[in-house]
UniProtKB/TrEMBL annotation:
Regions that span the bilayer: 9-32
Domain AMP-dependent synthetase/ligase: 117-531
An annotated Gene Ontology molecular function: arachidonate-CoA ligase activity
Similarity comment: Belongs to the ATP-dependent AMP-binding enzyme family.
Keyword ATP-binding among record annotations: no
GO biological process, one term: neuron differentiation
Assigned GO CC terms: endoplasmic reticulum; lipid droplet; plasma membrane
InterPro entries: AMP-bd_C_sf, AMP-binding_CS, AMP-dep_synth/lig_dom, ANL_N_sf
Protein name from the UniProt record: long-chain-fatty-acid--CoA ligase
Amino acid sequence: MRFKVDMHYIVFSPVYLLMWLYTLITFIPWYFLTDAGKKKTMAKREKAKSTTGKAEGPYRCVENFDNLAREDFEGKDTLDKLFEHAVQRFGKADCLGTREVLNEENETQPSGKIFKKLILGEYRWLSYDEVDQIISHLGSGLAALGQQPKSTIAIFCETRAEWMITAQACFRRNFPLVTLYATLGEEAVAYGLNECGATHLITSTELLETKLKSILPEMHNLKHVIYVDNKSIRRTGYPEGIQIHSMQAVQELGAKPDNLCIAVQRPQPTDLAVVMYTSGSTGQPKGVMIIHSNLIAGMTGQCERIPGLGPKDTYIGYLPLAHVLEMTAEISCMTYGCRIGYSSPQTLSDQSTKIKKGSKGDCSVLRPTLMAAVPEIMDRIYKNVMNKVQEMSYVQRTLFKLGYNYKLEQIKMGYDAPLCNMLLFKKVKAQLGGNIRMMLSGGAPLSSATQRFMNICFCCPVGQGYGLTETCGAGTITEVADYSTGRVGAPLICCEVKLRDWVEGGYTSQDQPRPRGEIMIGGPNVTMGYYKSEHLNNDFWVDEQGQRWFCTGDVGEIHPDGCLQIVDRKKDLVKLQAGEYVSLGKVESALKNCPLIENICAYANSDQNYVISFVVPNQKQLTILANKNGISVAWEEICNHPAMEKEVLKAIKEVAASIKLQRFEIPVKVRLSPEPWTPETGLVTDAFKLKRKELKNHFQTDIERITVKKDAF
């Protein structure tokens, strides 16, 4: 967010002078107490360099330049050993927490829609010792039900403590865990379950009854379905060959002396730990084969970038555990003795959709210190706060802008602004509990404006990470001391990065001012390929030294200090009729800064010479604009009104001009979508990445209408 404040007012403002006076008085003790000088030196130093001296790399972190890290704790080379090590160290401490549901109410909206609202209590905690015992009983119970070592077992469930408990039970007994996103459609779930051939499936009662029940007859290998809730379900209507169990019943089965004696076959580092199915953003989901040593190496690199990780930390888990970012983050937290409190995007804050008005959201109750987020969620927080700023009185708004600009100056110099934190940003920070000391963004590029906003208003470092399921989520992460924006940091200590020329797209290692090219990641964190899909493994390769590499399809550039910046994606690049290349991702990222836009998908094809766009508008902002234009109708009618399409297109062109998009990059038509794009709609992934194929199919009629009109014109 760029605030424009009159410079004459800044110079003579008593508040501004007070801030400078406060900084001057406290600078010397604050400078030394917070190691500000050391942090500034760390931020400016060389963080990675080429091992060959060539511009294309490979680039390695300077701290681990001679070799790549494989283990965080010596001898703990499988996931079961890692958790047992944590139990030995932190046995009585809190491990996994879940909020108690006190009541559920239905609330009818003016539109007639009914929303479920929750009244939640405190977090109930399981200690490391208690989790360890549950894992032991569950693993024995699964073995008693016929689950065999090295045979796959599937989990199709929302993020919750039982998900992680199931995963740890599988790691201990060498049951390769097949993960499926809870928001996948029935066809994709059936595809994944049949491909992996799992005989046992863990799920929730809601998913069992709403998605699985109708496709179970198609599951030719499935014998046992275990639901994790403490609820009773009707056992009728299921195929005869499939048995339905509660998780509690399986644990009780495993606690019987005879079953506790079933031999535990421990995994080796080279054994398959997880088959992680992707979200299917470009077609059917692919199962990525991840062995124990891959995950151990990847998490070793990730943990090195989180200073002070330990028992004093509380992590809030709400992103999909079937996503590699969340799964590795939670396993890493457990390894270091952190406690994990579970949440969901619908209950995260006091204003979340499922929280009854006047009740507390999960952040307010848990008060986490660590949090991971995807850019879409951060963008929402950013826009919500800025909407509230616009509703402030003139004096409040001016003070906020003044403090924002002042702190922005301080951060750019590598410093902080304690007075602003205390007086201006305390309430903003409280939205996430008030204790966040570090946030990590992953899954997609985070805009510089949103990253800087989170830095300033939430008073904590906001790091960007870059990695893929195929690299265990590990690749690069920005350091806490790095106060730049728009970059994803230097390679982690477990891997190296190099660039491959993509001449057709115009990216080479000889580009000025910085080398650019397709990003390739190599190291022990690179996974073993796609499950039963050898024909898709062309992006994996092994070099002369036996190191595995993965070609990401993303385009990056290397800064002089060795940090990586993502500049494009090969699949997002479209060649227009006149020969110009348009980066759809670049256009979308730029236009998300428009206040009227909640989400946007740019579309183009090679038969035309222009870009069109589909937009989920900001309902509050667009409704205000509609009222100003004398349009007082229902929300869906506002979105379908030609005048409002013109207004949004006008705003898009203004933003595009301010950030200097090329003429051919600016959308010439817009279609407004009254419904938000959520993973449940199938139009975005669980990490809120656009599913371009599904979006194209969804808006096909509009594409044809817009294209015909434009071509005729």
